[in-house]
Please model this.
Amino acid sequence: MAEKNVGGRDRLVRTLLAALLAVVAVSTLRKGKRKTGLLAFVGALGFGFNAVTCFCGVNKTLGIDTTSDE
Model:
């Protein structure tokens, strides 16, 4: 398993963003806006994955570790 680098408020914000983007995805897909809906869905999956696993590849690349914020 990868080393954890997401914690505290960062994890909470990612969880909230995942939920918000999931709502946007469902809403826009129902309106027939496939491209916007799918992009929002992919974003929701990404932020949700980061929040659940406490790991972010971008954070690792940039040398950011928010686990000490807990």
Observations:
- The helical segments are 8-30, 34-53, 57-62.
- The two ends are 20 Å apart (CA to CA).
